[in-house]
Design brief:
The structure is a single chain. By secondary structure, this protein is an alpha/beta fold. The chain has a single domain, classed as Rossmann fold, CATH 3.40.50.300. The chain has nine helices and 13 strands. It has a nine-stranded mixed beta sheet, with helices on both faces. Helix 6 runs parallel beside helix 8. The chain is globular, with a radius of gyration of 17 Å. It starts with a strand and ends with a strand.
Length: about 220
């Protein structure tokens, strides 16, 4: 649990925290193996079970059909997988093209949820002497995602990583991600299992969060 700025302990049930997903850009960030992809797979399955189309841009290689089958058991596996479209860019340029074509993809395939896991991996590989150009391109990509969310009134979710800077842990991409993300969740491992908490939200105060564990059927809140 987390202390709010009012000094009161706040606790929000897991699924009230992450759903319904607002039709804006949301960022989940944290270290590797903190449950980010499992959250996104659970959200994807929830959408697909309702007959909605999901575009999952799998940059990290974490999209797992086996994991989705595990979540579903024997229920709706084929129909769910048919409703989840997967793209796998392998360079920052391919990611750029995927996002530039996103409006056409969303309109053509009637996509209801866009996920990019993660927005930052290929960006980090490109950073070097031309970091200003790469930062500018990342900003353009996020602006494009915001435009898609606003135009088609659908949620867009991205994941991000962390880095150590001046003995502090912060999001990679810094102000670029903070500027374009209207909602930001931090996901981390705890002694119990995992924790998700609000860094920024359009309706919830900073610090609201809950602990959860990853189980065969998806996510389970720890109370």
């Amino acid at each position: 649990m987390f202390e709010s700025i009012l000094g009161k302990t706040l606790k929000t049930p897991l699924f009230n925290l992450i759903e319904p997903i607002p039709k804006i850009v949301t960022t989940y960030y944290g270290k590797p193996s903190t449950g980010k992809t499992n959250i996104l797979l659970s959200l994807s399955v929830n959408y697909a079970q309702q007959g909605k189309k999901v575009l999952f841009v799998d940059v990290d290689g974490g999209f797992s059909i086996a994991r989705i089958k595990q979540m579903l058991g024997k229920n709706d596996v084929e129909s769910v997988l048919n409703n989840i479209y997967v793209a796998s860019p392998r360079t920052f340029e391919e990611q750029m093209r995927e996002i530039k074509n996103l409006r056409k993809t969303v309109e053509r395939d009637q996509i209801s949820l866009v996920i990019i896991d993660s927005i930052i991996l290929l960006y980090r590989l490109e950073l070097g002497e031309n970091f200003q150009d790469i930062n500018r391109e990342l900003g353009k990509q996020l602006a494009g995602l915001c435009d898609v969310a606003r135009t088609f009134k659908i949620p867009v979710i991205v994941t991000n990583q962390v880095r150590e800077w001046n003995n502090k842990e912060e999001m990679v991409g810094g102000d670029i991600l903070k500027y374009w993300s209207k909602i930001i969740f931090k996901v981390e491992k705890t002694n119990k299992a995992y924790n998700i908490s609000v860094l920024r939200h359009i309706t919830l105060p900073q610090g609201v969060g809950c602990d959860f564990r990853i189980v065969d059927a998806g996510l389970e809140e720890i109370v």
